[in-house]
Amino acid sequence: MRGFSQSQLGFTLDDIPLGDQQFNNYNGLSVTRSIISDDVGGVDVSQGAGAIDVASTSNLGGAIQIHSLDPDHKRGGTVSQTFGSNSAMRTYVRLDSGDLNKSGTRFYVAYARTNMNLWKGGGYDYSDQVNAKIVQPLARGSSIKAFFDWSSTQQFDYQDMTMNYLHTVGLNLANYYPDYTAAYHAAQGIYRPEYLKTNDPYDAAYYAGTANRVDYLGGLTLDENFTDRLNWKTTLYGHADTGYSTWTTPYMPSPNGAPLSQRIQTPEIARGGFQTALTYKIARHTINAGVWYEYGNFNESRYFTEAPLLGQGTLGNPTTGFPTSKVFAQPWQEAFSTNTFVFHLQDTYRITKNLTVNAGFKSMIVNAGNSVPTQSLAINGTQVAQGRLEASNAFLPQVSANWRFLPHHELFFDVSHNMRSFPEDGYGTNVSATPWTSSQTAFQSTKNTLRPETDWVYEGGYRYTTPFLSALASLYRINFSNRLQLINSQSGINPITAVENVGGVTTNGAEASVTIRPLDGLSIYNSFSYAHSTYDQDVTTASGVQATRGKLVPNYPQFMYKGNITYRLGGFEVHVDGTYLSSRQLTYTNDLHVPGYFLANFGGRYNFGNIGVLKGLTTSLNIYNLANKTYVSTTNELGNNFVDTGYNYFLMGAPRQFFGTVSAHF
């Protein structure tokens, strides 16, 4: 969103903070694990300045606030079943209690199971998820609402690609699972013929990489209207996460003589907090003030377990558990603790009927640190980073205005100053720019000079809205300071990583979108965006000066286009949508990039109405990647290099896939 990755945005669910959205989350969980998509009642998206009252310490570029569906007033439920490519199956069931008494007490319980094989290689993605919500209406339109989510996910990872792998083996390069013999031989230097064509057959594939996560998330919200002018809203929440990830590595042989072993990482989260705010309306002012506090523990350990000798068994399916009796080494164990305190104050002043101004600020303190109860100097080669860092700012202001100067016409602008706290992760990890990934020596050398990422966001635009036409045009500028980047100086599999402050980044961008509704049931949407993000200066590292000044920021396209055509006629609906992303740089000096691509999707559905006890029986068909385009989806999952070293990793997008769904209410 406007050149920001999802870990630089703010995400909440029913005011519960979902934390940093990186893969190895330390203070939250992903959106898909926090709520079943069918139970989403609405989403508020704030681009640019973001929402000043959102509970997030990472919202540099905006906020995405998700609201769960309320239980229905009528007793009943919803069922749906999906089938699709790669043996995809998804089952969803929701049961609504309806109003249980005159006050309107009601609840629902929902369950979803999803299972799908990887589109290349062996393995699968599997998840079970349960949501529950209860609503108790109170006097004066007040309410108490409680939401609960349980999620269990097991997934196999796709093998990371490089340009060399893509041009030699091809896009179907995959790990060896379930062929343990092939992985065993590769660790001995005996490779499949296609892997011998690469510049690094040792790292081209492994037995498997997997992840297993179990989450419990719950929140209780009191929304109390004391009067028609005064509202008090408080949310209490808690979150627990356990799990592990595996990687079968040829870099650590087993004590029994096997040339490989299984590396286990066990992240665990236990956090809780509250958010409370008062809103008071007086004259033309709506004043809102609140506090958010969270205490969190993030513990992580790394182990190595023994692999069997060839002919004496296999590693089996790593997602079904790992044998603790086979652990032969523990390189490190780290325990993080974090205190987060945020205060906000804002006033929405309706100067005239058509002119509204919002102004406010927030103060943020995030104090985080770790202890290292266990570490092995022999395995790690250095002392693990240990210590505390604080990201704080007493005044992060935001000002915005909206002026309806004519019917259907409005102008708007906003200016904000934002800060992101330091991300947390264990030693030698390479998925986020965390200061704790390095050695104790490197940590101490930068501890007193390292600063949290901050930015100033400026935006102005014009909006036009009628039943026939909706149009938007906006310009924005972002001045980024203390940009922290994860630098890889060799293979991403056995990396030498460092976190560098690459200084300032300047982004100038423009957006335009238009939706036309020429006929009843027909909607045509098009949007265009341009963002030019460059580094403000060169970066000096231990290897010398890196020529980054004026270079494009890696991983972000300069041009994007999105289009959609939807037509509805009675119970029939069909849509076609398309997305274009221009090329993305893979290095900081822009000497390697992935090409742009255009992706089209198709969907159609028909509502048969009520049939017997079933209401709104609907069938749908969706086709992803309609033209079966070969394209690069994700970049930067293992950091970027300054120059093309041959170890610049990315993931390939899925080919054409078909999915069909039958759903109904009862």
Structure description:
The structure is a single chain. The chain has 666 residues and is mainly beta. It is 5% helix and 55% strand. The strands form six sheets. It has a 23-stranded antiparallel sheet that branches. The longest helix has 8 residues, at 180-187.
Main traits of this protein?
666 residues; mainly beta; 23-stranded antiparallel beta sheet; four-stranded mixed beta sheet; 35 strands; 5% helix; globular; TonB-dependent receptor
Radius of gyration over C-alpha positions, nearest whole angstrom: 26 Å
Assign a percent range to the helix content. under 10%
Biggest sheet details: 23 strands, antiparallel
On the 0 to 100 scale, the average pLDDT is 93
Structural class: mainly beta
Give the strand tally: 35
Identify low-pLDDT runs.
none
Q: Which of globular, elongated, flat, extended, rod-shaped describes the shape?
A: globular
Distance between the termini: 39 Å
Number of helices: 6
Percent of residues in beta strands?
A: over 45%
Organism: Gluconobacter albidus
Membrane topology: Multi-pass membrane protein
Keywords: Cell outer membrane, Ion transport, Iron, Iron transport, Membrane, Receptor, Signal, TonB box, Transmembrane, Transmembrane beta strand, Transport
Family: Belongs to the TonB-dependent receptor family.
